[in-house]
Amino acid sequence: MLEAKHLTKSFGLVHAVNDISLNVKAGQTYGLVGSDGAGKTTTLRLLVGALRADGGEITICGHDVRRQGEQARANIGYLSQRFSLYEDLTVLENIRFFAELRGLARDEWLPRCLKILDFVGLAEFKERRAGQLSGGMKQKLGLASALVTRPKVLLLDEPTTGVDPVTRQDFWQLIIRIAAGGNVAVLLTTPYMDEASRCHRVGFMRGGRILAEGTPSELRASLEGRIVEARGPSLPELRKTAANIPSVEDVRAFGDKLHLRVAPGRARTVIRDLKGDGAEARLIPPTLEDVFLSLAS
Ligand SMILES: Nc1ncnc2c1ncn2[C@@H]1O[C@H](COP(=O)(O)OP(=O)(O)O)[C@@H](O)[C@H]1O
Ligand SMILES: [Mg+2]
To answer: Which residue's C-alpha comes closest to atom 11 of ligand 1?
Structure first.
């Protein structure tokens, strides 16, 4: 549905997107995960054709974005990171605006908009002014607007950033239903690791590059046997002790515990050393956060 090969885009000296390739199949969700400035928004803007790539190829539902831009874009729904609503228009008027912008006729837009508002859970708020919606409801209206043309490819730029945890859950239920039910290819960006683990595939992005890519379990497997959880009476002391063990590559605090990344094959000795020092230590399955952090160092 969505395929990008060797995409690059620079702004002056900044390589915002540096040789990115990815593809998303129908019914799948792909999560581009990275911190601020990683290049996530630029990637999405290239994919929707809002920016012209310096190099590379993009195909959307078989249409080359450069040569068949209009056909390609007709298949895309896009929720931008800072999309704006008309605050003094109602929910229904806002979504109608998007529908008419995309060329939907009058007798088409009303039933479809009502159906989508119902789907995202905004039906009972359709007469409310957008300015009076909560942050989560605004995001849902943004999603509704992106769905108005029944896209086969849906691009969502940090759809859940700043949204409360309950609404984030709702939002994820919607995304899963859109992908699976509508046979839609969903590409979303997020800074949140727990959201990454909900995607079929994940790409960890930094400095314009995808540093690692795969299913969440494939990514976790790369650190299998190398994450040791440790606790002790004094976390600062334990941290010092752990950092002094040569085969410990990295130490991070996770609440009242430490996660140590150890060199391959060294976990047993590290655990023995820590226990010898009176700490509790055990091997744990790596989290996606462990994987992401291991790429950073
Ligand atoms: N229009 C632009 N002009 C100049 N630099 C830009 C522009 N858009 C993005 N950048 C730079 O490109 C890099 C990637 O930005 P962006 O794609 O917005 O990252 P993210 O969405 O992951 O936070 C950053 O260094 C940013 O400052
Ligand atoms: Mg961004």
So the answer is: 16
